[in-house]
Amino acid sequence: MFSSSEKRLFGGGYFNIIREEDKFIEVRSKCTGHYWMVFKKTYDQNKPVVLYHKHGKNDAWYHEHWKTWTVKSAVSNIKSHDEYVLSHPNYIQEKSGN
């Protein structure tokens, strides 16, 4: 389901690859420790790539973060999100309402 060039987007040391299946790749960002799942839908051609996110390993669920057209833009969105989190040290407290 993921092309070779799409799989290479997860290389280079930025991510730890947790699991790779036909329809999704689950990764952990080494920068923030956040978990991401990039899911490719085969049944819907309107923004067929869905990005799911959770803050830590012990979080029970992923939440839908974004929909897009390409795996490349999903990976770019993860990196942009990491930049935002790293530049806002209270991000997790703000998101949890603490």
The tally of helices reads: 3
What's the total count of β strands? 5
Mean pLDDT: 91
Order of helices and strands: HEEEEEHH
Shape summary: globular
- Low-pLDDT runs: none
Amount of beta strand: 25-35%
Fraction in helix: 25-40%
Largest β-sheet summary? 5 strands, antiparallel
Derived from helix and strand composition plus strand pairing, the structural class reads alpha+beta
Rounded to an integer in angstroms, the radius of gyration calculated over CA atoms is: 13 Å
Roughly how many Å apart are the termini? Answer: 40 Å
Strand order of the largest sheet: 1-2-3-4-5
Mind explaining what this structure looks like?
With 98 residues, this protein is of the alpha+beta class. The protein is built from 3 helices and 5 strands, in the order H-E-E-E-E-E-H-H. A 5-stranded antiparallel sheet has the order 1-2-3-4-5, with helices on one face. The chain is globular. The relative contact order is 0.16. The model has no long low-confidence stretch (mean pLDDT 91).
